[in-house]
Amino acid sequence: MAYKNRKGIGTKLFGRFSLKTKVIIFCILCIFAVVLVMKTSYWNNKNKAALENTRKDVTQDTVIKDSNNNTGAAENKENEHNKLEEECKTAEEFFRNKEYSKAIGKANEIISQNNEFYKAYNIKGIALCYSGNYEEGMKNIDKALELNPDFGYARFNKALAYELYGKYDDALNWYDKDLEIEKYIWSYYGKASIYGRRGDVQNTVKFLKIAIDMSSDVKDIAKDEKDFEPVKNSKEFQDLLK
C-alpha cells in the first residue's frame, strides 16, 4: 500500500506541470542521455585503443627479442664452425709436414668439440694410415664419408690409403669416385702412379698428361717419382716429360 501511495503522489506532481515545462524536462533528459551515451562510447574506444597498442607493443617486443635470439644463435654457430675450420687447417698442416701424431691429436681435439665435424675424421684417418694403423685409419675415413658422402678429400684419401697399402684396384676405384665429383689433379696423378708401377705405359701417360695439363709443376715432380720407374724409358713417357 505504501509503494502505491508514493507512486500515486509522483504521478500527481508530474501532472501539475504545464505542457511546455514537460517538453523542456523531456529535452533535458534526452540531452543528458545523449551526452551519457557519447561519453561512455568515448571511454570504451579509448580503452580499446590502449589495449590494442599494448598488445602490439608486446607482440613487436617478442618478435624483436626472438629475432635477436635467433641472430645471436646463428652467429655463435658460425663462429664455432669457423674456429673448427681453422683448427682443421692446423691438423692438415701437421699431416703435410709428416707430423702424424700431432695431426691425430689435433683431429681428436676437434672431434671432442663436435663429433660430426667430418673433416677432422678425414685427417685423422689418413694420418693413422701413414702411421701404420691401416684399420683405424680406414674407419675414420669411412666415418667422414658417412657424415658427408660427397666430401672429395675423403674419397681421395681413401684411394690414397688403398694405394699406400698396395690395394691398387681398390685405389683406382676410389680415385674414380673422387673424380666423379671433382677434377682433382692428384687423383689423376694417383692413377698414373698405379699404372706406372704396373708398367702400363698407355694409361700412365694418359692420366699423367691430364695432371700436367692442369699444372706444369707436375712434370718436375714426375721426373723424380719412383712409381714411374717401370715406364720411364718408354718413348711416350719421355716425350711427355720434355
Describe the structure in your own words.
By secondary structure, the protein is mainly alpha-helical. Among the domains are: 84-168, Serine Threonine Protein Phosphatase 5, Tetratricopeptide repeat (Alpha Horseshoe); 183-242, no CATH class. Helices cover 83% and strands 0% of the residues. α2 packs parallel to α4 (118-130) and α5 runs antiparallel to α6 (152-164). Residues 1-14 have low confidence and may be disordered. Residues 67-94 form a coiled coil. TPR repeats lie at residues 118-151. This is Tetratricopeptide repeat protein.
List the helices and strands and how they pair.
Layout: H1 2-15, H2 19-96, H3 100-113, H4 118-130, H5 134-147, H6 152-164, H7 168-181, H8 185-197, H9 201-214, H10 217-223, H11 235-240
Helix pairs in contact: 2-3, 2-4, 3-4, 4-5, 4-6, 5-6, 6-7, 6-8, 7-8, 8-9, 9-10
Question: Which ranges are low-confidence, i.e. pLDDT below 50, for 5 or more consecutive residues?
Answer: 1-14
CATH topology of one domain: Serine Threonine Protein Phosphatase 5, Tetratricopeptide repeat
* Mean pLDDT metric: 84
- Spell the H/E element sequence: HHHHHHHHHHH
Globular, elongated, flat, extended or rod-shaped: what is the shape?
Answer: elongated
Portion of residues in helices? over 70%
**What would CATH call the homologous superfamily of one domain?**
Tetratricopeptide repeat domain
Number of helices: 11
**Rg result:** 44 Å
Termini separation: 136 Å
Tell me the fraction of residues in β-strands, as a range: under 5%
Number of strands: 0
Q: Quickly name the level 1 CATH class of one domain.
A: Mainly Alpha
Query: What profile does the largest beta sheet have?
Result: none
CATH A-level architecture of one domain: Alpha Horseshoe
Q: Briefly note the structural class of the backbone.
A: mainly alpha
